[in-house]
Structures are given as C-alpha cells and as structure tokens.
Amino acid sequence: MAKEEMEKQGYSGIERMLFFVTPLLFTVVLVMVLFVVFNPSLRERLIDAGRGVPVVGALLPGDASEPEGSAVLKEQDDKRLASLQAELSAAKAKLEAADSEKSGLEAQVKSLQEQIDGLIKTSDAEKLSAEQYQGKIAELAGMFASMTASKAAPILENMTLEESILVLGSMDSRAQGAILAKMDPKRAAQTAARMKDSEPVKDQQIAALQSRLRLEATSTETASAILNQEQLTKTFESMNAAQAAPLLLQMADMSASKVLRILSSVSDATRSSLVAEMSKTDKKMTSQLVSKLMAGK
C-alpha cells in the first residue's frame, strides 16, 4: 500500500491531464466519425475540402457525380452535333436543288435567245427581200415616168388594174396625172378610184400578184397568154420566195400545169428558193411538181 501511494504521488500534472483528456478526445473523435459516416452532406463537404490539400487530396476518392455529369454533357453534345449535321445536309440539298434549277433556267434562256436570234435573222432576210422587191417596183415606175405619157399609158392599160396601181403608186403626182390623162377614160377612172384608197404597200403587192394569177387562169388567147406568162415569170422572180410559195401551192390545186410553166420559166436561183419554201409548207405536193418538172425536161 505504501508503495502504491508512493507511485500515485509520483504522477506529474501532465500525466493526470492526459488521463482525463484521452478518453474525452476519443469520445469526440468517435462521435465526429459517426456523424460524418451517417451525414452524407457533411461527408461530401469534408471530402471536397480535403481534395484541396496537396497530399491528402491524392488519397481521397474522386467525385462520383462527375462521370455521370460528363456522360450527360456528352450525350447533349452528341444530340446537338447530330442536329447540326442534319441541318447541314438539308442546306446542301437545297443548294444542289437551287443549282439544278439555275442550270435549267440558263438552258431555257439560252434556247429562247437562240430562237429570238433566228427570228431576228429571218425577219431581216424577209425585210431585205421586201425592200428589194419594192426597189424593183420603184425602178419600173421610174422607167415608166421617163417615158412619154402616150407610150406609158397603153402599156399600163394592158396590165391588171392592181399592177397598174402598184406602179403608179410609186410615181409622183405629176407623172401619175400625165399617164392617167392618156389612158382610156373608164380605165383611168377605175385606177384613180382605187388609188385614193390608201392600202399598205405589201397588200398592194399581193393584190397585184393575185390579179395576175386570175388573168393567167382565165386567159384564152395565145398571144395574150404568152405575154401574161412572161409578165408572171418576172413577177415571181421579183417576189420574196416565202410569199410566192403559198400562192404556187394554191395554184397547183387548180392547175398544176400552170405552176410547172412558171417554175420552168424562172431562173435557177429563183426556182431553188421557191421549191425550198414550198417544201416547208407541203412536201408531198412539192415533190410531185418537181417530179413532173424533171419528166418534162
């Protein structure tokens, strides 16, 4: 007993403090551990704080929610990328459709431009031929104007009324009056009455040709027929082939022999133009006429 009491007397103050403090610290640490274990929110906060410590952070586990969040973000990015790719494909398809439509429109514009150019060329050619025909009429009118009225009047009287109107219409009023004064009064009155009605030059030309064709169809005298044939040949040679071809085809329905005489009497160049224009309108009739024309030669 004496020995134990001597040992008790031998404890220092620090030893006595540790004797009481150690159980207390153990209890506090145990309580904190249990509190952390059973409190997830506090545990997460303590782990997050521990990750900030260099050495301790390496020993602590990583954030379990991070992979799940990354997976969600990746899925969202994939969906957005797929949506953008779909929009890009749709835009490319629209662009290709627009390019195709543009190419089609360019082809149509090119075709229309070619048609317009062709029509312009055709119109220019017809205009040139009409001007050439009008030039021949003016030249013929000048020839009659240079003659004496007493000589020009009988020649004009032997022409059809429409032909004489066409020629007189290209003269000045002084020459017209002088020639009409020398013509038969009845014929002069008819001519003057028709001349006062202003008609387009092209209509007058067509009327003159039609009158010549009617005269050729109804003429019975040989001498008159020869004269009309020569005049008709000159008329067709001076006409535009595009205008003469339909008339010849109409004549062929009534009298193919007269058309053959006209084709055989004109020049080779005129005949070639007439046959080309006639074949555009009626190939069958034209081939029959050409065959008969070759057989006649």
TrEMBL record:
Query: Which stretches are transmembrane?
Result: 17-38
Q: Which InterPro entries match?
A: FliG_a-hlx
Please tell me whether the keyword Transmembrane helix is annotated for this protein: yes
Residue ranges of coiled coil: 74-122
Keywords tagged on the record: Cell projection, Cilium, Coiled coil, Flagellum, Membrane, Transmembrane, Transmembrane helix
* UniProt name for this protein: Flagellar protein FlbB
Its source organism is: Paenibacillus pasadenensis
